[in-house]
Amino acid sequence: MHDPLNNSDSQKRNKLPRSRILRGRGAFDRVFRNGTRLSGAVVDARYLVTGLPGTMVKTGFAAGRKSGGAPQRNRLKRLMREAWRLNQHPVNEANARRQPPAELHIVLIAKKKAPLFEQVVQDVQAHAYAIAGLSGADTQTAQHTHT
C-alpha cells in the first residue's frame, strides 16, 4: 500500500546532510566578500559560484549579534535551516544542469530578532528561486548588488 506521507523519494529529497552545510570562516568570508547579495524582509542571502569542480550546493546560516543572545541566534539558524531544507530543490536542480559544473556556496543571514517561521520560509523560498534563475552563466548581469 502506498503511503503519500511516507514517500521515500520525498524523504530523500528533503534531507540536508552535513556535507551540504557550508563550514569554516574562510568559506563564509569568500561568500561575503565576493558573492551576490539578495535582500528579503527577514532573511538576506549571499551566493557565490566557486569555480570548484562538482555540482554540490553548500549552504551556511548566520545570525549576527543584533539578532539577540545565543539562544535567539541559534533559534534563527534552526528556522533558516528548516526553511532551506524544504525549499532547496530549485537551486539543487539548476546547479546540477550548470555548464561547466561548479560548486555553489550560499549564506542565509537573519535580519530580525523574532520572525515568524512563515516569514522565514517566504524569504528563503524567494531567494531559492532567484538563485536558481540567476546562478547560471548570467550571474554577471544580475540586477542585485555585488558587495
From TrEMBL:
This is Ribonuclease P protein component. One of its GO terms (cellular component) is ribonuclease P complex. HAMAP family: RNase_P. RNaseP catalyzes the removal of the 5'-leader sequence from pre-tRNA to produce the mature 5'-terminus. It can also cleave other RNA substrates such as 4.5S RNA. The protein component plays an auxiliary but essential role in vivo by binding to the 5'-leader sequence and broadening the substrate specificity of the ribozyme. One of its GO terms (molecular function) is 3'-tRNA processing endoribonuclease activity. Pfam families: Ribonuclease_P. It comes from Cyclonatronum proteinivorum. It comes from the Bacteria. Consists of a catalytic RNA component (M1 or rnpB) and a protein subunit. Keywords: Endonuclease, Hydrolase, Nuclease, RNA-binding, tRNA processing. InterPro entries: Ribosomal_Su5_D2-typ_SF (IPR020568), Ribsml_uS5_D2-typ_fold_subgr (IPR014721), RNase_P (IPR000100), RNase_P_CS (IPR020539). Its EC number is 3.1.26.5. It catalyses: Endonucleolytic cleavage of RNA, removing 5'-extranucleotides from tRNA precursor. Belongs to the RnpA family. Residues 1-20 are annotated as: Disordered. GO terms for biological process: tRNA 5'-leader removal.
